[in-house]
Design brief:
about 150 residues, mainly alpha, about 70% helix, elongated
């Protein structure tokens, strides 16, 4: 949650004000960072071979998905309204919420859909530059397995 706090600090330090766009973007970014922490801990537990490493976390992560989307949409609306009503200057007050929102949306896509990071693992990088595109995220694959394996009606 350091990144949203840093954004608030920079906005205040530059003489800006705390706006609805900054608060909503900070909340969206923080929620996605929390989701990322849960996903990474879940994958670590799975790599260690712990029983039910994913089964108890997937329902929680699925429930967190819609609030994350809602916060991103609300933050996008607030950012748009702020940019339209303000002077379209590149001030920290306007840039910080937009950057936080961008980070939140990228994290959402990275966790729930496709893996966006391809610079830290050579086979992923090769896949990307070969034209085969992005691979599904670890969480997306875990959700798919969980849905396939859970009993009907659960």
């Amino acid at each position: 949650m350091f990144i949203p706090a840093l954004a608030v600090y920079l906005v205040l330090k530059s003489g800006g004000r705390i706006s609805v766009a900054l608060v909503l973007s900070g909340l969206a970014c923080s929620l996605l960072l929390l989701i990322g922490t849960i996903v990474l801990r879940m994958l670590l537990r799975k790599a260690r071979g712990e029983a039910n490493a994913t089964a108890d976390r997937i329902p929680l992560l699925l429930r967190m998905r819609w609030p994350a989307i809602a916060l991103c949409v609300a933050a996008a609306g607030a950012n748009g309204a702020e940019w339209l009503s303000g002077s379209l200057q590149l001030l920290a007050q306007y840039v910080a919420p937009a950057v936080l929102l961008l980070l939140a949306v990228l994290d959402y896509v990275n966790y729930y859909h496709v893996q966006l990071q391809h610079f830290n693992h050579a086979p992923d990088w090769q896949r990307l530059i070969s034209g085969r595109g992005f691979r599904r995220s670890h969480l997306a694959r875990e959700i798919e397995c969980w849905k396939r394996e859970r009993p009907r009606g659960a």
